[in-house]
Structure formats: structure tokens, C-alpha cells
Amino acid sequence: MKSRGGPCGFATNPTETTFPFCWIQIKWNGWVSNLTPVYSSTTLQSPCMHRAALLYNPLSGRRRKHRIADVEAAASILQAAGIAIDVAPTRAASDAAAQVRMAVRDGFDTIIACGGDGTIHDVLQGLAGKDAALGIIPLGTANAMAHDLRLPLTPAGAAKALLTAVPKRIAVGKIDYRDFNNLPAFRYFTVAAGVGLDAHLFYKLNRLIKDGMGMLAYYTKATHLWLTHRMRYFEAEFSSNGGAPLREARLSEMLAVRINQFGGVLRELAPGASLARNDLRLVLCRTGNRALYLAYVFRGVLGMSNGVPGIELAHADQVICRSVAGEKPENIYVEADGELLGRLPITLSMVPDALTVLVPKEHPTLSR
Length: 368
Known about the structure:
This protein is an alpha+beta fold. The chain has 2 domains: 14-164, Probable inorganic polyphosphate/atp-NAD kinase, domain 1 (Rossmann fold, 3-Layer(aba) Sandwich); 172-352, Tumour Suppressor Smad4, CATH 2.60.200.40. Helices cover 26% and strands 32% of the residues. The chain is built from 10 helices and 17 strands. It has a 15-stranded mixed β-sheet that branches. It has a two-stranded antiparallel ribbon with strand order 1-2. α3 links the parallel β5 (110-115) and β6 (133-138).
């Protein structure tokens, strides 16, 4: 069988894999092509997905040794349902947006991110503002977005859920920041953006430990940092629906959260957050007390139903964060969707009607 370049023009050696109702030509370093169904006896099940590009990160997340098999499992289910499928690895985080834009240009109506929140974040940079929908096959470490969408966490289960999913148009967050070369930059985000201690965690977290140990690495390193890291303070101004801005003169940490359920021990990190809303749920940490901070983060596990002193919640659709006197902005980091971005100052805002997400039809709020 001859190899041919996919939408991104990759030229690699193919191998052939046979499935019960179809065949797939896997290009290990490029697009899966020639995926028009040949023997499929299954009629098209998805009401909104007809041609989908599956993008996966071959180097991060859990089950890396099984990544190709996991992607094949998802692709075969979609293919057997009559959906035309192309598959490609993300070449680099900086290239993923260009891959997405090229796939949309070539007529794909759905982009499926096969990975974790970082892969979804990379795909989002090229998909925000487009008509094509975002589907998710959770193959990452935390899979917070998948938890919030109530997606099954197995490749086959998630693929089956996508077949009957409904499209939901949502707002996305936008963060304007200074990168590590002190140049202005921006990103879109779907899960959360953070300033302060949690971003410092991502700065310090060794990716090899994260990939090898999963969420245990997050919690172990987080606990160590919370016990040893010197709290650094910044100020924030925020407003909602064009109202008068409110000011927090001294914060040690701020999270701007979009999703309601993170899964794992974090659970409902910011009660009141929802992808169905057009704003951010802010977690404002005024305290430098490490015990109180840990109590808030793990309050679900601890069974705490009341608030934690020194930590407040607020809704906002516009936020500005700056360093305060005595603190160097280069020492205060910012992140979005778990990806370390740069340093203060930042501006957070909302982009309404920016993204179509495929939501399981059983979702309690988004599928309505």
C-alpha cells in the first residue's frame, strides 16, 4: 500500500491495521488517511460529526506506551459509525494551532483532542472562533475538562459518547500576559487560569515526574511547595457585566475558574463556576496561612462545607493583576489550563460564543 501525505503533508512509512468494519492506515508520525468506510454496516450515528481530525500528543500523559492503541480504539469506533477520520500527532505545542487551522480549512467539521488538558489547550488556540466543534478523548494525567463534561475516561467509552453528543457553543477565557522574554502574548483557556502559588507549582514541577507518576506527583510536589515556598503578593482589580471595579490590594493566589468539576481530590474547586456561564469564578486568596490554603484545596476530601477564612469567591468577566510594591513581577508566575505561560502583569477577559464543544447528552446542564 502506498503512503500519501495527510492534510499537513507529512511523509512517513505507514503500517496497516484491520478493524471489524473498516481498515485504517496508520502513519505513526503523520496523518491517518484513506479512512472512508469500506465495509461498514453501521449507519451514521452522530448528528453533527461527519469528518473529524484526531490530534494526539505522543509524548505526554498516562499510558504513553499504549497511545497508538488508545487512539486506534477511539478511531475505529468513530470510523465504524461512518465518520471519515484522519489522525495525526501534534508536532509541538507551538504548532498545534496551525495544524488545527489547516484541518478546519480542509473541511473537517470536528477536531478531536486525544490527550489531557494540555492537548486541549493547544488545540483551542487554533479552534477558538471557528465553527468546527471540539471533541475530547481523555488520555491525559488530570483530565479536568473531561471530568467536567462527564465524559467516560476510556478511549472507547469517550468515542461512543461523542457519537451521540450534542454541540454546545460556549465562551472561553482569554489571558493577556508577558512571556518569559517579556513580550506581550495571549492564550485562550477552558479550565482555569492562575496567578501565584499554583503557577509556581507548574514552574517547579518536573515533567518527567508528572508523566511517570501521574497525579501523585502533583500532590506530592504541591504539598512540598506549600510548606516551603515564600508567599508573594500581588493586587487585582475585577469587574462583572460592566460594573464598578473591585480591588484586592494583597493576594497570595488567584484562580480564575471556568469548569465546575475537576475530578479527583479537587472536585468542585470553585463552586459556582460553569462552562454554561459567560464569566469566571474567582478564588481570591488573601491569606498567607498555608494550612488554610491547603484546607480550601482539599476541603472536599476533608468534608468541609463552610468557607475557609481568608479565601473568598467572586464572579468576574474582566480581571487585571499586577505586582505590588516590594515584589518583583518576574517572581510571580501565571498559568492557564496547567500550562506555564509567563509573568505579571496579566489581563483576564471572556470571549463569548467562541467554541463549540461536543457534550454527552446526559450532561446535567450543558446538554440542554
